Structure formats: C-alpha cells, structure tokens
Amino acid sequence: MTTVEIAQGQADESTSPTPTGWWQRFDRVLENLGDHLNPILVKETRQALKSRQFAVTFGLVLLTSWVWSLMAIYMRYPGILYSPDGPFLLVGYLDILLFPLVVIIPFSAFRSLASEREDGTFELLSISTLSPRQIISGKLISSILQILVYLSALAPCIGFTYLLRGIDIITIAYVIMLAFLASVLLSAVGLVLACVTQQRHWQSALSVIVILLFIFLFFMGLMLVYTLVYDESGWREFDKFDFWLGTIGFLTAYASYLHLIVAVASAQITFESENRSARIRVALLIQHFLALGWIGYVAIRFPTDIEPFFFMITLLVLHWFVMGSFINGESAALSPRVRRRIPNYLLDRLWRNWLIPGPDRGFIFVMTGLISGVLASLALAWFDTVTTFSVSDAQRIMVYGFGLMGYAVCYLAAGRLLVRTMNLIFRADIFVSVITNILLLMGGVMVPLMFQVLTNRTMDNTFNHWTNPFWFFASSLDKTGFLESPDVVFFAAFLIMLGGVLMLLNILLGAAELVPGRSKSERDEIEAMPPPPEPLDDPLLS
C-alpha cells in the first residue's frame, strides 16, 4: 500500500460518522444557542456555579437533607412504616431548601450588582451594547437557574415524602411554587437595593441590613411552611373554583409587581440623561388597569358580598400611597436629551407628559390613578344596587372609599408640600420623601393618641383620632353602623375637601413645571436658521 492510499484511508476514517456524532451535533447546537443568550446571564451563571460559596452551600444542603432523612426515620421508626409521616419529613426538607432560596441566592444577587459598582466594572457594562434591562434580567435569570439547581437536588427527597403518605402531590407542588416565586421576588428586590447607594461605607452598612432582612424573612418562611404543610390544612380547597381564582389573582399581582421591581432596578442603573420614569409609570399603569379589571370581575363574581369591595379598595389606596411616597422625591431637573424628545404638538405633549420625570407631574399621575381607581370601584358598587346590593350597602362602600381616598390624598399632598419646602434648602431625594411620608403618617397616629392618654388617660375610639387612618379603617370593619352615621359621612366629605385644597395648592405651586417646553437640537436650530443672503453684484466689476 502506497503512502497516498494510506492518507486517503485516514481521510475517509476522519470523515466517517463516529458513534458519538449525534451528541457532538447536539453540543454544537447548544453552543450556538449559548452565543445568542444574554452575555450577563452566561457570565453570572458561570461565576455562581464555579464559586466556593455555591460549592459549600450546595454541599451543606445535600448533607443536611441526608442527615434529616436519617434523623426523621430514626425518630419515627417503627411508626413510619404504618402512619402517614409525609408532612413531617416535608417540613424539614422545605426548611432546608428555604435557606438557599431566601437567604443565599437573593443576597448573592444583591452582591453581584453591588460588587460591580464597588470594583468599578459597572462602567464597562454601562458603555457596552447591553441595555440596563438586559443587565438586570441577566442577573435575575442567573438567580432563577441557581434556584432550579437547588430544587433539582432536593427533588428526590421531596418526592420521597409523597410515598410516605399524608401529603398530596398538589400541596407539594403548590408550596414549592410559593417558595420559588418568593426567591425570585427577593432576588429582584436585592438587585434594587444594590443600587440604593454607590459609596463603599454605605454599601457595607446596607449589606448588613440586607442580610438581616433576608434572615428575618427566612425565619418567617419557616413558620409559614410549618403552618401550611403540617399545622393547617383548611386552605387546601383544590376542588373549589374560588381557590384557583384566588391563585390566578395572586399570580397576576405577583407578575405585575415583579415587572415593576425590574423596571425600578433598570431605571436606577440607567444614565441620568435618560428618561428613568417612563417604564416605571407604564408598569404602574398596567397594575392600575389590572386592579380595575379584577375589581370588575369580583363585582360580577360575588354580587351579594361587600367585603371584596372593602378589600380591593384598601389595597388600591395603599398601593398608590406607597408609590406616591416614592414619586414625590423625584428630581425636577430634565436633561437636554429628555427635553429634545418632548413632542412638538400640544395634544401629544399633554398625552405623554405624565411619562416625563418630575415630582409635580408624578404627583398628578398618582392622584389621577388613585382617584380614578376609587371612583371606578364606587361606580361598580353603586351599579350593583340595580341587581343585588341594597342602597345602604352601596352607601357604606362609598363612605369607606371616600374616607380612605381622602386620607391618602391629604397625606400625599402634605408630604409633597414638605418635600417642596425642603428642596429650597437642600436636595430632598426619594429616600427623604419616603421618610417624610412615614413620619407624617406616624404623627397622625401618635399625636392624638399621646394627647388623649395625657389628658384623660383613656383609650376610647372617638373622633379625637380623626388624623389616624387606621382608626377609620378599624372602626369601619368592627363597628356596626359606623359608616352609616351622619357624623362619619360629614367627616369623609371633610377629608375630601381638605385633600382637594392641598392638592390644588400643589398644582398651583408646580404649574410652571407641569408641561415642560421642548428644547431643539443643534440640527433643528441649523435648519431653522434663515438662508445666507445672496452676494450683491459689484458695479465696478460689471
């Protein structure tokens, strides 16, 4: 055989399919898919799964679950052969699983973004082609992959509890779903908290606060798991439509708040020259319309009950009060880039005006959402008087809704006035705005309480507590006939008038900033310049 024939034979062998050819092709497909993934996701996942922290935590989870299996079987033997001990073992496995899901993974997400700022590598990310939303979503999906790794590690142990009887597969899946959703939400919250401050000494203090917060939530989760799995089984109404309806409502609220938190985290790492408020306010609008849709469905689904109306109105007012406390502290300065993107036409400008950053526009945005949501709920309640509601029930809902709305408008408007005054002395940011609204609310609760205790040493629930919204809330639910009293009706009207005066005062003081003017770009200014004059003919040259 010649050398040429040997070379041709080797070439034929190299081109022939090998037994592992299909696996190599599958591996190439995965590599091609990996090239299209978010690079932040790939980087964070590789760093997390190769880190010593993950190796130690994952090993401890496996070791602890093995020790718990032996201990539980030893403690329950020989009764475990006959009695349904599945819930007992499941509580232990879920407690082991909660530690990485509630403490380790959310804190790792917090540190992953905080360390980018501390080490100075975040500037490299900010000038890359990745958008802020891609950076946040990449880190969040990396946390989700870590959650799935821990779930897959304990899946055989959790499946073993089903074989021990006493627990159904739907309960196991439902509780694991709650733990998964809680871990994802806490990871998103950790990303938001990582952007609160850029100074190293404040980051150290914030790290301690965040880890203590997650540890506290971990212990709360332990008690909740014990209650849901081992102690209380009345909530497991899987055969009823209302249970799954409540689950869908919970998932709707969860998805909307997760979207809002991701939008907030993305806005915090966006350049200051960009519009940071637009996506956040769009997310708030989505939540608002989802809430109105659920209120309408609840009114149709439960036509004879007034409790769902009280519940939905309370959540709606509380939501807008919290959002308004943050929006009141936005910066009023608009960058030239934002001003250049303001529409030219007045109607278009008025329509998009509420998506432009600024505390005065944000205040009107919050007031519009709060008032429209409460009025829509009250209109639905009054519409139900045609079919099932009595007029007295509709009146109770209206007095309750107007009362809570009046409290929210008064406190938000008063907080905006205080923040506006503080901005004349120093820059009052979002943190100062939130603290101001909290102190105002605490003052409205504590001042009448202290005055009443010091004067007549009694704790009776009278109108001396009219500044306390919790007094109004508790009295409306506990006392029969409270909302039907003429004094309470007059008081709710007084709150609406007081809130209207404070809101009008804020509008007058911020009228100059409500509709900002559009600044032209250099290209627009050049195009708007008159053409140069034509040169005159020189008569001496002609």
TrEMBL record:
It is a multi-pass membrane protein. Residues 96-225 form the ABC-2 type transporter transmembrane domain. InterPro entries: ABC2_TM (IPR013525). The chain crosses the membrane at residues 54-75, 87-107, 140-163, 169-193, 205-228, 248-270, 282-302, 308-327, 362-382, 397-418, 430-451, 488-511. Residues 520-542 are annotated as: Disordered. It holds the Pfam family ABC2_membrane_3. This is ABC-2 type transporter transmembrane domain-containing protein. The lineage of its organism: Bacteria, Pseudomonadati, Planctomycetota, Planctomycetia, Pirellulales.
